[in-house]
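User: Teach me something about this protein's shape.
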Amino acid sequence: MKNFFLRLTLFLTFPFTALGDWADLPPDSFSLAPPPQSGSPAYARDFEILKEHQSTRTESSCELGRRQFFPSYKTMFANQESPLEAEEADLAFALITKVMKVTEKISSYQKQIFKRPRPYSEDSTLEPCIMKI
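Assistant: First, the predicted structure itself:
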């Protein structure tokens, strides 16, 4: 099963290889739909989902989240919770590191565009497992 995740990652990233060094694409090359408007039914549904997750989360899932507070290759793919076997993780290191850097670049850019507050800043009944930022 773990081999499946490596193959899926490689399959999903393969189209980007035709673009040359896709990691150098500017973050505005990727677009996201805006988040739901405050007060809309979709906005309310987002918070319902968060509250459902909060009511069913386990201490072990919170612990995993705390260990991944600052995502890195090591915390995501080179530990006992990794979907990859150790050999697969070693083989995928360069690609996964590159994907994580591109993802960070894109998400930082999109966060600046939308400026959506953290959910716990909007709803005091939400208590994250990890440190609030």
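Now, about its shape. The first helix runs from residue 2 to 17. The mean pLDDT is 83. If you'd like, I can walk through any region in more detail.
User: That's plenty for now, thanks!
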